[in-house]
Every structure is written in structure tokens, then in C-alpha cells.
Amino acid sequence: MIDVKSGQYARGFEQRVRDSQDISTAPGESSISTGGLWRRGEASWHLGAGQGRADVADSQAYRFESSKGVDVWTKGELSLLNATKLSLSSTGTNLKVVTTDTRVYVIAGDTIKYTTDPFASSPTWTSIAKGTSAGQLPNATARDMTTDGKNVYLTYPGTSNTYGLWKYTPAGVSSNVAYGHELGYIDFVKGYFMVTGSTGNTNDLYFSPSGNIGTASYEHPVADFVWLGFASGQNAIYAAGKLGSTGAVYKITIKDDGTLNEPIVALDLPDGEYPTGIYGYLGYVLLGTNKGVRYCSTDSAANLVAGSLIPTSGDVLEFIAADRFVYFTYTNYDGISTGLGRLDLANFTSTNTPAYATDLMYGDDTTPVTAAVQGVTVFNNKLVFSVSGVGVVVEDSANLVASGEIVTGTYQWGIPDRKFIAKIDTRSRQLYGTIIPSISFDGGAYSTLSGQIVPLSYESTSNPPQTKFIEARLKFTLNRDSGTVGPTMTRWMARAYAAPARSEVFRVPVLIHSVINRWGADYFFDVENELRELRSLITDPRVVNYQEGTDQYSVIVEEVDFQQYDVVNRDNVYEGTAIITMRSV
User: Which of 38, 387, 463, 554 has the most CB atoms in a 10 Å sphere around its CB?
Assistant: First the structure.
């Protein structure tokens, strides 16, 4: 019944992508023809980690999902961080570290140690003698330690006059500042020594400019409440605490005469989240919790306004600031390493949520380390942190990490249909080391590509597997050339070809005659009924079968164009060819 003489028969596929045009005033990637390869890429990473979806409507440029061992904080550059090394080995599980102007001190088990150069190839750590003689500290295990910048202050358990709060000076002079109290956490904030009670009186607070504390300055009405730490704010001192799994931060405002008011709640945390550390910097408060980090600003009444939670894999116990960055303890980042995270207070991804990423780490595949990071400080512009049961770890400025990586968010190239990546390009400063891309399709394992490996090169193109996928995630591994020289990546770009399921379009001319002779036989049809059936497929669209030879297709009829050639009789019944346009589904 096909009208083969009409020349109207045709079949083909619908257009892969619609025509588009760039109406912007400046050229960009949207200026590139969408009929070819579609581009996705990144040329800076300075807004940090935490973006799982890279090209959805609310995605932000310059963000990625995660990283390790790479410095993302210089706009337009990605490079390796410094390595780390063990400065002091210790099995202690109470490794609190603080720095004065000339020393780094650490509580290491039942001993207090200090050094003037923790970064030396063979550091000298001096143990402070214990006993009852002048210049000795109590023969007990310290609970906590702080500094006024010159001297260190330590809290000890017990009620004897040899315990309590002790001061130790660079000259080796020790003195019992306060005794007769079970003391826990201590901080030096806004000129006040802020001290918590300990076993049996964790709900007590002591504060004094001299540290010579007597009775509790404030006792929380709930005996089981536990105070955990203190921070300096713009117009108040903040004290963090918890009751079970419920946490809060209290504000302690300063009177006109310099004395302190009673604590008042300034921030309640969500159920199940409680403080584990608190730190003040530039009038703002950084709050560590059992779930991560929160950056807090203050309102006119000195209440805290918390930002979104920056999630971590363990309790965040301590912070330290250096210029625009704040570093925080990041325990068991990935099952083989433990270390630090970094916040950039010059760049925020939303209100009260600074950009963040991981920073220095300790441990690797060969020697995994996942223990709690208990303290962090800065000494001579380099980082120092302590790991429970391991010791004191320091930044090794003489060496870069051997390898670092960054993982992008997931890309869909703006469509849920399948596509494949034809090329992946990397660019760098003059290359020292290697840059190796890997790709994961639809959550699967990563496939490693050839990458940029030619010394002193500036760019490279890799050919990924021609796997059809819905979404993909890329990983870039930077490997150093030598101890102090490594690659600096400046851009990557993945070029994909959209391969959606495409409908096949049929244009079939069908003879509509009352009598059709085929191969010597006459076939009789009701012309009006045939046309009525065809028209019903337009007025009542539905999926029907179209068979051509031995092939069968599920189609929807989109158009019926009837071309009349003759009249059957005086009833004005027209004969002709119906050109039927169908689309496969």
C-alpha cells in the first residue's frame, strides 16, 4: 500500500540538540556551538569543598566536592600542600598543645614537655620536672593548658594544696595559683582566666583576671551540665557546654566596672548536636561540635547567629587562626589520615558559612593513622597539631606531599540523558611532576587516564573511555617532581557529546484507494473508513505499531496529509495518497 512513485517516503532521526544562540555581550562557553562537544570545566577552586552537584541550578563556580593534600586557596591555581612529620612520639591520649612567644608546650601523658624548635630534624623536647621542689609541677596528670602569650597555666585534679591551677614561666618558675578545686578546661579570654569545674562539679564556672579563683563564680542549675570551653567575642565571653546530647553556648557580658555578668544562653544547637570546642577570632566565634564546624556572628544583643554546618568525620576539638585562615582539628578524614581542615574567612559560600577544605594530614596507605586530633597551634608561621596516641605532628616546609587530589562535584552536562566524554584537557604552569585525571561514571569505580606527564609542558589531552553515562565525577591527582617541586594546575575541561535516546521519524505515503492492485490481485478498501481511522490517531493520540517489512516500531502518529488524485463516484469520495508522519517512542 506504499505509494512508491510519490517520492514522499522518508525516514530519519530527530535533531540531537535544538538550535541556540548566544545573546550575551561578552563571549564565553555559551558562545560555542551546542551542536558539537559540550564543555564543562574549572579554572579556580578557591570557594572550597562541599559541593556534591556541580552543574545544577544552585551550583556555585569555583567549588568542588572534596580534596586532600592540595592547596586550593590561590585563585586560579591548584598546587600541593606541605608534607607533615612526627616531631614528638607519645602514647599519651591527652595531647593538648599551646605556643608562647618562644616555645611549644604539650601535655604528653603525665608529663609536660616543651621545645623551642619542633621543626628541627631531631627536635629536643624537654620534660618539666615533677615534685614538690621549686620549679617543679605536681606529680599528677594535667587536665588542660592555656597561655597568656608568655607563661603557661595548667589545671590538675584533686583537692590538695599541691593541685588546682598552676603557672609555669619560661624561667622555669612554677607556682600554685589556685588550689582546693577539681578543675577541668581553662582558657585565657579578654584578660580573664576562665576555668571549668571537673569531676563532681562540671557545672561550675570560675573566672578571675589573676587566676586566683575561690568559690565558683557561677553554678549551672543542672548538676550534670558540662562546661567545655571559652571564646572571646565582640562584646562578650562565650562559654560552650552540653547536657547529654543537647548543646548550647552562653554569653557572659562585661559590666562597666570590668566584672562579668552571669551567663545567659546565646545559642541553642539542634537536638543531637553539642559543642566540643569553641574559639574566638576577629569578633566572631568558631564552634566545633560532634558533627562539624559552625561559624557564628553576633547580633546587637551579643547573641550568636550560626551558619550552616560544615560536616566532619569526628569531633572538632580546637581551632587556631593565622591571617585570613582558621584551622580546625579534623579527625579520621578518610580512613587512613587524620589532621586539619581550613576555613577561609575572606570567602563565604553562604551567610556565615566560609569556604573550607581539608589541609595538612598525617598517615597514608602504608601507615594509616585515624586517631583523634586533640590540639592545633601555629609556631613560627607553621602548623603544629597533636594526635592521640601518636604524638606531635608538624608542618614539613622542606617537602611537599608526595601526592594530592581533588574530586569535582557530579556533572550531568545539564541534561538527564546519556552522553559520553570525548576529551579531557588539563592545563598548568610549566609542569614539574604529573597531573593525572580519573573519571567515574554513574557512581562506579574510577578509570585512570594518561594525563599530563611531559616535563615542562603546559597542557595535555586525555582520551577517556567512550562509556555512555548519565552523570560523571572527575578526580585529578597531582604528583610532585621532587621534595620541594610539584605541579601547579590552572584549568581542566571535559568535552562531552550528548547522546540522548533519539526518536526516529517516518514519513510514509500510503495509497488510499477503493481498489488497489498488487502483484496481479485486487484489494478492496473503504476509503472513508481508512481516512477516518487515520484521523483518529491525530485527534486521539496513542502508541500504535508500525511494521515495515519484518521490522516493527512503536510510534505515535503526528501528522496525516491527504493528497487527492481522483473521485470514486458521484458521492464525492476522494482517492489519493495519505502522507503519514510518525515518531518512534
Answer: 387
